[in-house]
Amino acid sequence: MTPKLFSRRILFLLVFGIFVLPSCQKLLDYIHAHPGDGDADFKSCNIKKITMVFSTGISTYNVHYLFTYNIYGNPVRITNDLVSTGNPNFYFRYDKYNRLIQTIRPYSSNGLYETFNKYAYNAKNQIVRDTQYAFGHMSGDTALPDPNTYAYTEYTYDAQNRIIHQSSRVFRNNTWVFPSEVDIAYNAAGNRLPGDYDDKISLNRTNKVWMFLNKDYSVNNPFIATRYNHNNLPAFIDNGHIQLLPLEGKITIEYMCP
Question: What pLDDT does 35 receive?
Fold first, then answer.
């Protein structure tokens, strides 16, 4: 073996050891050893595809959700083959620092979106403001919001970078309406209250984006899956619910794992 080939192999092993082995060894161990990283994620097993059995009462379909990511391992698109009201596609936009700045949930080809969210950050790179517009028009891949009607939410975080409070209100007809306050708490195991959890890695933990969108930084899943993969992530849920899209019923989850 030449010195150059040997050095390349050593470099590969080092990279593999840093980025893959600790994840497979257990994200759970890392989370408990680093309580300040309450939003630590598991990108080495990003979600690749989710299949849900959907029934109308007359017919049954398999609905497929395909996930696409950028070079940093963050989602850029979720597309599905049964787009409808309540089940649009999902686009994600990032700034030059790879921070999530927009989510758009457009329909297939009618030039409309269901929701469009814009995010603002504080000095700690935490999303502290969320402005949401509903049922607007698209120009290509760009959402065109109505500045006269929108929902506005502010977020507060704990020392572990988890959202623990959100304050919302709606701007409509030149006035603010529907104010609401929500407090979020976690137990000693790092799971959102209330809930009954398994002892495996939470589906939301595969990416910080999912944790933020669901406002759920739980370590474990609030359900018992029928089957888990070799990294202890839920692979099949026979009759359950996941927040991510959201989905209910028989759900199969495929990952991009090493």
Answer: 63
- pTM, two decimal places: 0.85
Report residues of the chain scoring pLDDT below 70: 1-27, 32-36
- Distance CA(68)–CA(80), nearest Å, equals 12
| Ramachandran sector of residue 155 (left: φ over 0; alpha: ψ -120 to 50; beta: rest) | beta
Point out which residues pair with 234 in neighbouring strands. Answer: 228
Cα distances from 69 to residues 98, 143, 177, 218, 229, in angstroms, run 12, 20, 37, 23, 21
**Helix-helix angle 21-33:3-19, to 10 degrees:** 40
At 252, list the tokens: 């199969």
Residues facing residue 136 across a β-bridge: 113
DSSP states along the chain: --HHHHHHHHHHHHHHHHHTHHHHHHHHHHHHH-TT-TT---GGGEEEEEEEEEE-SS-EEEEEEEEEE-TTS-EEEEEESS-BTTB--EEEEE-TT--EEEEEEE-SSSSEEEEEEEEEE-TTS-EEEEEEEEEEEEETTEEE--TTSEEEEEEEE-TTS-EEEEEEEEEETTEEEEEEEEE--B-TTS-BSS----SS--GGGG-HHHHHHHT---SS-SS--SEE-TTS-EEEEEEEEETTTTEEEEEEEEEE--
Q: What is the pLDDT of residues 133-160, one digit of tens each?
A: 999 999 988 999 999 999 999 999 999 9
Question: Based on the number of CB atoms within 10 Å of its own CB, is 126 exposed (0-12), middle (13-18) or buried (19 or more)?
Answer: middle
